[in-house]
Amino acid sequence: MTSPTTSPTPSPSSPDPAPAPIVPRFDDDETDRKLAIICSKGNLDMAYPGLIIGNAALGEGIETHLFFTFWGFDMIVKSRMGDLRFSPAGNAAMHLPVRDMHLPQTVAPAMTGLATRMLKKQIAELGVPEVPDFLDQITASGGHLWACKMSADMMRLTEADLREDVEGIITATEFIELTGGAQLLFI
Amino acid sequence: MTTTTTTIDGRDVHVDAEGFLTEYDEWDEALAVSLAAQIGVELTEAHWPVLRFLREDYAVRGETPTTRRVQAVGGIPVKEQFTLFPKKPGKKMSYIAGLPKPHGCV
């Protein structure tokens, strides 16, 4: 990848022989890109993809909005957000951490506690924060958190039950309006 | 990785195709001021603890720390990193510190 500024285009007005230095082009002025992420899953393993992509987008200067709906709502409910779980039940792809043995589905339902502890340990070993800390980082990076009104109504929850940095409980239409022109990701 | 040389404020340094320095020892604090100016950042007292942490952490681990690690281990909050190195803190602070871009996902 060669910067166009380094091409040896002769300039009649300035015969300066020194080429322009090679400097990364951070393109600050071109970051009108916007990302909308709908988080609809409350399993521990399905909470992370949206957080990781959203965090990466924020680190690239991209305006990022997360909409928490259905089971994904648990990620922003104060009493639940620290207790998301990972279950191997119903997950035919689940294999044991050693070798490539699949976990028999007959025993899978009993394994939720163990599987959750193991996944949390693996995530922590990578230096990746737990869900509440991760959302702290996302809002510190300028990310926007929105709660789904229908989910709040169904679960009989109000703003008092949610993280303080959730900017509002809004309808699907309102979310679509405020993310006009955004790229949208449904998880 | 292909490297080439470029001249920043009269100093020849080795860089990758994007312009990130590739030789750890070619960097010093005077060069950091020049690198920062190239990308529109004016270094203040508050920038130096971040840059020094990056340099020290890279020297020990051999990889550039992510914004997460700069907060968790370096003690500089992510919010402050965004203020000091607007929009793309991970890339900007590693560029000014004379290090490769961070490769961690978080």
Give your account of this protein's structure.
The complex is a heterodimer of chains A (187) and B (106). Helices cover 29% and strands 14% of the residues of chain A. Chain A has 187 residues and is an alpha/beta fold. Chain A folds into two domains: 108 residues, DsrEFH-like (Hypothetical Protein Ychn, Chain: A), CATH 3.40.1260; 44 residues, no CATH class. In chain A, strand 1, helix 1 and strand 2 form a beta-alpha-beta unit. Chain A starts with 33 loop residues before the first strand and ends with a strand. Chain B has one domain. Helix content of chain B is 43%, strand content 9%. Chain B contains five helices and two strands; from the N terminus they run ββααααα. The longest helix of chain B has 15 residues. Chain B is globular. Chains A and B meet through helix 1 and helix 3 of A and strand 1, helix 3, helix 4 and helix 5 of B.
Describe what is shown at a glance.
The complex is a heterodimer of chains A (187) and B (106). Chain A is of the alpha/beta class.
